[in-house]
Amino acid sequence: MTQEQTNSLIEHGARRYIITITVVLCTLLELIDTTVVNVATNTLMGKFRRYTF
Prior knowledge:
The chain is mainly α. The chain has helices at residues 3-8, 14-50. It has 2 helices and no strands. It is rod-shaped and about 65 Å long.
């Protein structure tokens, strides 16, 4: 790659911050989603365990 091609791939200004904030928010949402699923799975398993035959 030439120097010109490399510079064209680098984001500058507000767009760079928007991309960074979007990535951080998506990561946090995935973490929250995983936590909710893990808690819900344990809760449901506890409820179904009572009704096994």
